[in-house]
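Appendix B. Raw example, untouched.
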Amino acid sequence: MNSNDTLLNEDLPAPRALYYIRSWPLSDADQALLVSTAQGQDLTAIFTEQALEQLLVTPELLDEFPYPAYVLQTELELHGDNAEALPPFVMQLNDASWVAMTLDAQPVSYVGLANASKSKHV
């Protein structure tokens, strides 16, 4: 490999987009963003903050959610006994896996922002 070669080809999108879902249910605009993204690449969702709380109270909300759903183990632990309500098909990420997934994804975005009208891309 010479100095002009790179390990990543910046012209190609990353194989995975990662969205942090912060509140639930999602707005129509956020839902459309997920659908649009999923048409071009794999999409993974991490439920966090209010969305995670809602998921633990009403796990059947994910019955119609068509994308892989994850939660962070460290955040789930904060919910104590309520964490047992998490559906078994929701994957739990440890910190190292979360960092690796985030580094391999593009875009990494937040949707479901309670106090914002637009999604935030990182």
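End of appendix B.
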